[in-house]
Amino acid sequence: MSLGMKLGISTAHSVVEPTARTRWIAGVLVVLYALVTIVPLVWIILTGFKTPPDSISYPPKVLFTPSLEGYCNLFTTRSRQTPEYIAALPPATGTCDQVARNASMVVAGPSNYIPRFANSLIIAFGSTVLSVGFGVMAAYAFSRFKVPLKDDLLFFILSTRMMPPIAVAIPIYLMYRELGLSDTRLGMILLYSAVNVSLAVWLLKGFIDEIPREYEEAAMVDGYTRLQAFRKVVLPQATTGIVATAIFCLIFAWNEYAFAVLLTSGTAQTAPPFIPIIIGEGGQDWPAVAAGTTLFLIPILVFTILLRKHLLRGITFGAVRK
Amino acid sequence: MNSPHPPRAIERVAQSTPPVLATRLRGLSDRAIAWLFIGPTMALLLAINIFPLIWTVRLSFTNFRANRPNATVLGVGIDNYVSVLTDPDIWQAMQATAHFLFWTIALQTLIGFALAYLIDRKFRGHGFWTTVILVPMMLSPAVVGNFWAFLYQPQIGLFNYAVAFLTGVPPSSFEMLGSVRLAPWAIVIVDTWMWTPYVMLICLAGLRSIPDYIYEAAEVDRASAWRQFWSITLPMVLPFIMLAVLFRGIENFKMFDMVNLLTSGGPGSTTELASITLKREAFEKWRTGYSSAFAIILFVAVFGLANIYVKALNAVKNR
Question: Both B289 and B186 in a single domain?
Fold first, then answer.
């Protein structure tokens, strides 16, 4: 019995509705948890706008003069120069130029962050297109046709996702070395597609199962072939599911680290193995690392908000649909 | 038929037969489409998963080393398996993995369920705060490991500062990542921070699946709130909790990225989980044959887990 009823306060709503007091306490606790859990993230975003000395000061600085040094250091490589050399240079042309000169350095060129970020984008989108494309076809077949050994095939597809990435990486490493796919974007796209296609098939099968068969059957009575019905009836109906699945595949490929660190080192390296090795003069350049992390996480934050409704389904391979 | 021209034979057959057969006559058969549609997925999985797996099995019976591709490769029978299973380092890694698995799952289930229960009280703004809580689990584990390494810095780190502020111990008196005693807990804390929302989300779905009328009936029978919780809420959410536990179990059994960035197995080998040992054997010591055998043993273990997992998954689905 709820507290309100014990005290004899009558409530107008149903007995299972929590009382105002319960709600208030629950709300306070959850908000507290949310605030604590978000602190590390806020701290990283703040650190991106600190100067290197501010980032390692004790006690940790909450209030500080914002600086773009972290972002400048992220995007450029710099070299230390004598004050005479810097004084003899023409005036600084940009913010980062100025920031570097204040630290008696000169911008030597762009850093590798943009190419690594671009690799992340290309590999994530490439593998998503491939795995969702293959996935939607397989999911349709599993959803609508009698496929021999259907359950075994579906379990097989799922089980490929269960393999520890490092265990898969050993033979992939050897195979890619033979095929010349080591450290290539194509190699990574194929690899991530293979990992994601299992998720895509399972999720999309769930979404397609929910589209009534009658729609296609009606279309086929009207003279559509099976393939036309698939293209013109099923695919448009499954758009939400396809988009949600695609976002899940994107997030996986975007976040992946184990394969990336073992199989790429240069031309195809993605951002996750690159961010931790951003080194400044005399140790890790935390503001630059934090800036790189912030930029890398922004797409994920956007996607999380977009995916809110389908999150549950995605993380349970479609087992829980709500 | 009033058409001026006699319809083509196939159209005539199509019109006089049931729609399914008609489609077959006009296009590809369903069976052909089924194989055409499943084919690419299977081909991809065979090329990138199964073929390498078979290769691993073959390598596991040899003394091959990937950094010496030209050396003569000898078959060594089951020697690699024997040495993996009798290697004390491997058993230490298994112990570290078990510690990590047990505590992450215990903490995440407790906190996750409690949070879900509170959120299900439907206070104002619960949707917004749920989304805030969900953010950590969407992030890249590697990037998370890297920025927690910053928070765990002994003198300057925010974590040490917060602990010092709350307990009064000097912030430089303990090293979360550098001490043999604390490092196993440091990785448990980060994993719990990251994945509690996952368990929470699944538990929340479980709580919301319980129909109101059950509680109403219990209320009519004057069952206490405590009693309602133990005999309605918990049993009905249990399959969901199990599902979450199995998912987390499999994921954390494979854990590599986050821990590699936080401690890379150190100090010593106190946080060296199975996957990290595997990486060291395969890509640092280059004992390819030996590590292939270890990989196969891990496969079998994960497969066992996966089997249980699919059964539980179906149990939840068929409720």
Answer: yes
| Percent with pLDDT over 90 in chain B | 33
What CA–CA distance (Å, rounded) separates A132 from A246? 6
**What sign for the dihedral angle of Cα A260, A263, A264, A265?**
positive
**Do A243 and A168 belong to one domain?**
yes
Max avg pLDDT among A64-73, A215-224, A257-266, B107-116: B107-116
Chain A stretch 144-173, residues whose beta carbon is closer than 8 A to a beta carbon of chain B: 144-147, 153, 155-160, 162-173
Contact predicate B250/B305, CB 8 Å: yes
pLDDT at B2: 43
Domain assignment of residue B285, given as a range: 79-317
**Whether residues B184 and B240 fall in one domain:** yes
Any chain A CB within 8 A of the CB of B283? yes
Q: Is residue A101 part of a domain?
A: no
| Count of structural domains within chain A | 2
The model carries a pTM of 0.86
Task: Look at the block and give the residue holding tokens 């194989």.
Answer: B35
Spatial CB neighbours of B63, under 8 Å, sequence gap ≥ 6: B73, B74, B76, B289
Question: Does B161 share its domain with B295?
Answer: yes
Specify the pairing of strand A105-110 against strand A283-284: unpaired
Judged by phi (left if over 0) then psi (alpha if -120 to 50, else beta), residue B200 lies in: alpha
Are B33 and A226 inside 8 Å of each other by CB?
A: yes
- The model's confidence at residue A312, banded by pLDDT at 50, 70 and 90, is confident
Rounded CA-CA distance B185/B176 in Å is 8
Determine contact, residues B156/A58, Cβ cutoff 8 Å. Answer: yes
Distances A191 to A123, A131, A169, B76, B293 between C-alpha atoms, Å: 10, 10, 10, 30, 22
Domain annotation covers residue B172? yes
Mean pLDDT score of chain B: 85
Could you say which of B121, B141, B216 has the minimum Cβ distance to residue A26?
A: B121
- pLDDT for B123-154, tens place per residue? 888 889 998 999 998 899 999 999 899 999 88
Print the SS3 string covering chain A.
Answer: CCHHHHCCCCCCCCCCCCCHHHHHHHHHHHHHHHHHHHHHHHHHHHHCCCCHHHHCCCCCCCCCCCCCHHHHHHHEEEEECCHHHHHCCCCCCCHHHHHHHHCCEEEEEECCHHHHHHHHHHHHHHHHHHHHHHHHHHHHHHHHCCCCCHHHHHHHHHHHHHCCHHHHHHHHHHHHHHHCCCCCHHHHHHHHHHHHHHHHHHHHHHHHHCCCHHHHHHHHHCCCCHHHHHHHHHHHHCHHHHHHHHHHHHHHHHHCCHHHHHHCCCCCCCHHHHHHHCEECCEECHHHHHHHHHHHHHHHHHHHHHHHHHHHHHHCCCCCCC
CB contact under 8 A, B40 and A316: no
**A to B CB pairs, distance under 8 Å:** 314
3-state secondary structure B74-98: CECCCHHHHHHHHCHHHHHHHHHHH
